[in-house]
Every structure is written in structure tokens, then in C-alpha cells.
Design brief:
The protein is an alpha+beta fold. It has eleven helices and twelve strands. The protein folds into two domains: 71 residues, Arc Repressor Mutant, subunit A, CATH 1.10.10.10; 156 residues, Chorismate lyase.
């Protein structure tokens, strides 16, 4: 499957409801690749809508590359290529994986400038109100399919050590280290967001689509903020994974992140 343009939601609230329901079922695997969908009449009865409404939803899913409509043979789910491109990031090895991702995927630079960052970025990085930063927005692609929209802020004193072309061809993590930055720690938060018009177009998804929102502040050995990342990821092509361990005793027994352990380690512990 190749995504070539920005998908739009079908017209009408009922058609959008059908579209989003089927989209979610395809994305999370309840409808598998190669599975044939029920006919339009059956879907219309299931969702209590007209066949015209169902047809609008199916047309939008077909445009998104999630189904294939063939006259005489029904409508087939086509989600395998997206599943193969899904990036599964483990919290234990997140930074090395991000570096590897930068080497195995391509980036398209959308904008590049030096200007004052937003107040919340300056505050998070510990910059003075008059300090400018390099602000760059990129889309990262896997096999030509966009999966992340990244906006980075780097203090000018660091960013001047590499060029706009470097940023388009080399992972920022490597550029920071090449500039002499000794990275010590990072703080990251994950939440949800919706795709606005510009992001939707850049990621070839429908406006209003749900996205994973990732914010990260990277600091050097002196505690200075050296990068602020605001990333938006397509949830159908990106996931964050974390092994959990059962700890504690009695009523206090609970799940806890097993930092530094793999799923295999936890399985061996459970058998011992």
C-alpha cells in the first residue's frame, strides 16, 4: 500500500462514525489483513445507517489505503503494509532505538529558522527570554509512508555547529554529540492529540485523526537544556512498549515498570 495524499474524513456525522469505527478495528487488529468486510447492506444494518452512508465511509477507507474494493469480490482489509512499518519503541532502549530509526528511515525537512521559541519551551529548557533557538520541523517516513511529525528546538550556540542540510540527512541526536554536547539525561511525556490541517496533510491522514503526542527535554551533564522535541506520531504506525513486573506482597502487590529488563528476563523470573 502506498499513501500518496492527505486522507479526508467522509461527509456527514453518521459516515464519519462508521469510518472511525472500522478504522479503529483495522488499526488494532480486530479486522485482519485479507479479511473480507460484510456487504454494504449488512454494515448499514449494523450501524443503523443507509447504504449511501456506508459507501461514503468505505470510500474514505479505500482512499486511506486500509481496504480494497473490488467489483464482484467484495471489500478486503489491506492493513499488512502498515503493520509491517509500525515502529515499536521499548522504553528500556528508547534512545538507541531512536538513533537506529534515524538511520533506517528518511526525513523530509518542512521548515527551518532561528527565532524565539514559545515561552513553554524556553521555560522547560532554562533559556533566557531573549535567547533564540533553531526551530526545525521534519516528517519522518518509513518506506515512503510518513509516520511522525517532529518539531525540535535547539539553542543557537549549539545549532550553529551544523547546517540545514545536516539536519535533513542526519539524526539530531548524532548532530548534538558531534557538536560536543555531552548528553546526560532526558525527561519524556506521552499523551494524545488530534491532527490539525497542516499535520494531517504532512502525515497523509484525515484531519482530526488521533495522534500520539510525545514531548522530550534533553539535558547535558551540566543540566542545561540542549533539545526540546515535540513529536506527533501516527498510532497505526508507532507504539511505545514497556515490560512490567509484578512486585510487592499481599494487598500491596502491584505492577511496576521493569526498567532494564526484557520480557524474556521477566518470563524466566516468573518460572523460577
Amino acid at each position: 500500500m502506498e499513501v500518496t495524499g492527505s486522507t479526508t474524513l467522509p461527509e456527514g456525522a453518521k459516515a464519519r462514525r462508521v469510518y472511525l469505527s472500522l478504522h479503529d478495528q483495522i488499526s488494532d487488529g480486530r479486522l485482519c489483513d485479507g479479511e473480507t468486510l460484510p456487504g454494504e447492506q449488512r454494515l448499514a444494518e449494523t450501524y443503523s445507517v443507509s447504504r449511501v452512508t456506508v459507501r461514503r465511509a468505505l470510500d474514505a477507507l479505500n482512499e486511506a489505503g486500509l481496504i480494497e474494493k473490488r467489483v464482484g469480490s467484495g471489500t478486503t482489509v489491506r492493513s499488512k503494509s502498515l503493520a509491517e512499518k509500525r515502529a515499536a519503541m521499548n522504553f528500556n532502549t528508547l534512545m538507541p532505538q531512536l538513533v537506529e530509526m534515524g538511520q533506517s528511515t528518511t526525513a523530509r525537512l518542512l521548515s527551518f529558522s532561528y527565532s524565539l521559541p514559545p515561552d513553554y519551551v524556553a521555560h522547560a529548557m532554562g533559556l533566557d527570554p531573549s535567547d533564540k533557538a533553531q526551530i526545525a520541523t521534519r516528517v519522518r517516513l518509513a518506506d515512503g509512508v510518513p509516520f511522525s511529525h517532529l518539531t525540535t528546538y535547539v539553542p543557537t550556540r549549539i545549532a550553529q555547529n551544523y547546517s540545514e542540510n545536516d539536519l535533513a540527512t542526519t539524526p539530531l541526536f548524532k548532530l548534538l554529540e558531534r557538536s560536543g554536547v555531552q548528553i546526560d539525561a532526558a525527561h519524556q511525556s506521552v499523551s494524545a492529540s488530534l491532527a490539525g490541517p497542516e499535520v494531517a496533510e504532512a502525515l497523509s491522514i484525515a484531519e482530526g485523526s488521533a495522534l500520539l503526542s510525545l514531548k522530550r527535554v534533553v539535558r547535558d551533564v551540566d543540566g542545561n537544556g540542549v533539545e526540546y522535541l515535540s513529536g506527533l506520531y501516527r498510532p497505526d504506525m508507532f507504539s511505545l512498549e514497556m515490560p512490567l513486573a509484578r512486585v510487592g506482597d499481599g494487598v500491596g502487590r502491584h505492577w511496576e515498570p521493569a526498567i532494564g529488563q526484557t520480557d524474556q528476563d521477566l518470563q524466566e523470573q516468573s518460572r523460577s
